[in-house]
Each structure stands twice: as structure tokens, then as C-alpha cells.
Input
Amino acid sequence: MTDKSLCNERFFNTFYTAHVQAASNFAYYKSGDKSTSLDLAQEGFIKVWENCTKIDILKAKSYLFTVINNLFLNKVKHQKVVFAYAKSSPYLDVDNQSPEYLLEEEEFKEKLKTAIEGLTEGERVVFLMHRIDGKKYREIASSLEISQKAVEKRMSAALKKLRRNIEGI
Output
């Protein structure tokens, strides 16, 4: 085992420190939920550690992001089952807030959810990396391993869709 192996605990710790923020952000852009994103990022690093002998050091970051993406997709599949069951449940949560406020809040959430769901995964990731993280297009392109032109196209498409779908908010 060489010094620069993911199986070397010190090197792995360096890899973790260097990429934990980017991995957590990527997971957040996918999931939209902070606690879920932290779980996905941690699970991704666990998979890297478990497969350290099989991963080319030069492709470790790409492997990490792929694992996080796959974990997210598996979580979405599971949530679809949970939501289908919840929809069929006749019981509603009781809240102490006024019915008008709850209705307005639900309408807003639904419009926002619909607008975000209208974006492709690529558009959503690029949009959030640029707007939330403040990353430049070339940084996003490098992180996602796509061209800067592709980032620009995705961002443009995302903005057009959001403007069209959120004008009533």
C-alpha cells in the first residue's frame, strides 16, 4: 500500500477534508434537505472507504459524486413509495394555525415545488450551485465534469423555466 492510497487512513482523511464541503453541497442540491444531504455525503465517503482498493486515486472525487447521486436516486425511489402510502392515508395532521394561513402556505409550497420539479436534474444542480454556492460556471463545469457551455445552457434553461412557472408567486 502506497502513501497515496485511499486505504491509507491519513490520506483518506486528507481526501475527506478536501471534498466534504463539495460533496455535502452536491448532495444538498440533489435532495434540497440539509440533514439528508449530510447523510448522503457521509454514506458516499463510507462507500469510498469500503472500496478503497478498487478506486483509482485520480477518479476518487468522481466516484464519490457518482455514489452520492446513486444513493440519492435510491432514496427518491423509496420516498415515492412512502408518499404513495401517505396520500392514501385518510388522516391529516392537526395544526393550531389559521386555515387561511395554512392554505396560503400550502399553495406557495406547491407552486415552488412544481417550479423546481419542472427543472431537469442537470438544470437544478447547476442553478443551485451557481445561485446558492456562488460558484462560477467554470467551477461548476469542473465539478460536474461537463463543458462550461453545457453549464451555461443548463442555467439559461433553468432560469427560463423558473420565470415562466413562478410568475404568480
The chain has seven helices and no strands. Residues 7 and 49 are 7 Å apart (CA to CA). The two ends are 57 Å apart (CA to CA). The longest helix spans residues 60-88.
